[in-house]
Amino acid sequence: MDSRDSSSSVILSPDAAKDSSLSEDAAAISVTSALAKYALSSFQSGKFEECIDILIQLNQKKLNDPKVLHNMAIAEYFKNGCSNSKKLVEDLNSVKKQSEELASAAKEQVEAANPGTNASVSKDQFDSTVTVLNIAVTWFHLHQYTKSLSILEPLFQNIEPLDETIALQICFLLLDIALACRDAVKFFAVFDYMDKAFGGGFGSQDENGSTMQHSNLSKTSSLLSTVASDTLKSDLTAADSSLCEETLDYDNVLAEIEAEKRMKPVGHIPANNLLKTLGERSFSTIDLKLELQLYKVRFLLLTRNLKLAKREVKHAMNIAQKRDSSMALLLKSQLEYAHGNHQKAIKLLLVSGIQKEAGTTGIFNNNLGCIYYQLGKYQSAAVLFSNALRSCSSLRKEKPVKLFSLSQDKSLLITYNCGLLYLACGKPLLAAQCFQKASIVFCKQPLIWLRIAECCMMAFQKGLLEKGNNSADRSEIRLHVIGKGKWRQLMMEENGHVELSGSTQWPKLSLPLARVCLSNGIYLLNESLLNDSKSDVESTLSLGINETKEASSSDHGEASTNSDLKEAKGGMNQDIIQNSLSSFKDIRSLEKQLIKQALLANMAYIELELENPIKALSVANSLLQLPDCSKIYVFLGHIYAAEALCLLNRPVDAGAHLSAYLLGQNDFKLPYAQEDFDPWRMHISSDCEETLDSSTGNARDSVFLKPEEARGALFADLAALLATQGHHDQAKPLITHALALLPNNVQATVTAVYIDLMLGRSQDALARLKQCTRVSFVPGRLEVRAS
Question: What is the annotated signal peptide range for this record (predicted)?
Answer without folding.
Answer: none
